[in-house]
Amino acid sequence: MARRYEAVYIFESTLEEPAVTEKLTRFHALIPQPGEAVVDVTHWGKRTLAYPVAGRETGYYVVTKFEASSEMLPEFERALKLDEGLLRHLVVLDEGAQMAPTPSAKDGEEEE
Amino acid sequence: MARPQKSCAICESGVRVVDFKDERLLARFLTERGKILPSRLSGTCARHQRQLSTAIKRARQIALIPYIKGFAG
After folding, report:
1. Measured between alpha carbons, how far is B24 from A102 in angstroms, rounded to an integer?
2. Do B22 and A99 touch (CB under 8 A)?
3. What's the CA gap between A66 and A29, in Å, rounded?
4. Residue A9: closest CA among chain B residues belongs to which residue?
5. Fewest CB within a 10 Å sphere: which of B4, B6, B47, B52?
6. To which H or E segment does residue A13 belong?
7. Cβ(A2)–Cβ(A68) under 8 Å?
8. Do A101 and B25 touch (CB under 8 A)?
């Protein structure tokens, strides 16, 4: 039974966009493709971290949403842990959370 | 003298589920030290306070917001 997950990856900031997308495709290849599994990939790009992670001050953030069955998660997580370029990751169930509409721009994207 | 009950800021902004990636919203519910504001001070309703605390803990884990602010560690 496929469930919708949301994952946040923090890559080493030395990595450039192509290298990151290449790593991402390798990760997402692990997800069995019943249909269009990876629904959304957003690159936040380089950001300064709120506190040093693994001795680094900046990280390359990527946020993805994908549909997957729960059996494949341990294997997916193991692949994430093995990758040195990935400083930290977080995989959670997607609760359809919304960003608060910023007072200036009323474009808070309404997820379904 | 009971103070008029502050309304929940998150309910008003129309957000149903608090997003842990929305650090601008989360920062409004942190003290200067970066601790979570109690709902009796921020006036947040219980449902959103529960969501808020998990969202803040997740945001801290992915280094969007610090565990301790102003800590020259």
Report:
1. 9
2. yes
3. 12
4. B62
5. B4
6. none
7. yes
8. no
Query: In the CATH scheme, what is the code of domain A3-93?
Result: 3.30.70.60
Which residues in chain A are contacts of B55 at CB distance < 8 A? 97
Residues 7-46 of B with CB under 8 A from A: 10, 13-22, 24-25
Contacts of A45 (CB under 8 A, 6+ apart): A17, A60, A61
Q: End-to-end CA distance of chain B: give it in Å, rounded.
A: 43
Residue ranges per structural domain of chain A? 3-93
Tens digit of each residue's pLDDT (9 = 90 or more) over B11-68: 888 888 999 999 999 999 999 999 999 999 999 999 999 999 999 999 999 999 999 9
* Cross-chain Cβ contact A8/B21 below 8 Å: yes
What is A81-103 written as a DSSP string? HH-TTEEEEEEEE----BPPPPS
Q: Which residues of B touch A5 (CB under 8 A)?
A: none
**How much is the pLDDT for A108?**
45
